Amino acid sequence: MMRVSRVLIALALTVSPVVGLALAGFIIGPHLGSELASHWSGNASKPDGFSPTVSSFWGFAAITVALTVGGVIGVLVVARGGGSRVWPMTTALIAGFSACAWIAAAWATADAADPQHAALGARLAIMLVPAAVGTLVYVLLPPAPVTQTGTATAPIVPVGVGDRLAWSGVTGSRVLAVAVGVVGAIFVGVLTGWILTRQPGLLVSASVLLLATLSALLLQPARLTVDHRGIRLSSALLRVPLIRVRLEDIDEVVADTIDPARWGGWGYRISGAGVAYVARKGPGLIIKKRSGGAVAITINNAQRPAAVANTLSNNARTLQK
């Protein structure tokens, strides 16, 4: 019953962008003229673009409705255990941005003497609502069940008395590495533009790009280490710890194919399936914890770190007896 209620709430949130846009059109529409301010660049107090009121409304409405239909289908598919929560979350997020973009512009125009003097101001805060809606949709829906491919193995390394065992390797994504380079280059360009022109909008953009670059560098590349301290994943460049599992917490480490759809998508994920670092679909470790949770990490040649982890874990349990 609780699961049904969560799905129904997720459905309500998914259709909320359409409902919100319709209500805004009904409430704000009568206060608008034939034209509304539709674009601001660098200065949220002075618009530099204008659109016909009616056609802009129906244009945003068409986009919002199409995304909402896709989102509703996604929620129903996930509720039946057939897909990832990333799909309905993403459609709800983008549909919300579409609806809120028109609402913010119409709201600013309606409060101004004429469209040329429409100022967004604090109304920009409405763009935070879609992020909250998308997050709630993701949290409310059940995670895809974690399944093994049938080729998963839990190897062991034969070691002698007194032998020391450890493994270390780097994991990451080439696509993410390219994205980091592109975003970093754009950041440098925007920062240079701000230094030359001192436009406030460029400084805001540079700050956002810097945050995005640092966030990406936090995950790309990452170093996986397996030794007597357990399994540790940390940022290879920034040295920030990302995942740690102690030997005594390990039940079994399996080398298997990691499917992003089963773990909530790409990147660093926390979901009902567990904690995961997913750089791509491919080989990796699934660490089954004695507490019942699971951790997934994509890594090439996953058999080797899995064997080292299982051996060290088994040895630690033997010594405790």
Structure commentary:
By secondary structure, the chain is of the alpha+beta class. The chain has seven helices and eleven strands. The chain has helices at 2-28, 53-79, 86-111, 129-140, 174-197, 200-219, 303-320, and strands spanning 35-39, 49-52, 167-171, 222-227, 230-235, 241-245, 250-258, 267-271, 274-278, 282-289, 294-298. It has a five-stranded mixed sheet, with helices on one face. Strands 3-4-5-6 form a four-stranded antiparallel sheet. The longest helix has 27 residues, at 2-28. The chain is elongated and about 80 Å long.
Oligomer: single chain
Q: Structural class of the secondary structure composition?
A: alpha+beta
User: What's the overall average pLDDT, rounded?
Assistant: 82
Unreliable segments of 5+ consecutive residues: none
Q: What attributes characterize this protein structure?
A:
321 residues; PH-domain like; 5-stranded mixed β-sheet; 4-stranded antiparallel β-sheet; 11 strands; 48% helix
SSE layout and pairings?
Elements: H1 2-28, E1 35-39, E2 49-52, H2 53-79, H3 86-111, H4 129-140, E3 167-171, H5 174-197, H6 200-219, E4 222-227, E5 230-235, E6 241-245, E7 250-258, E8 267-271, E9 274-278, E10 282-289, E11 294-298, H7 303-320
Parallel strand pairs: 9-11
Antiparallel strand pairs: 1-2, 3-4, 4-5, 5-6, 7-10, 8-9, 10-11
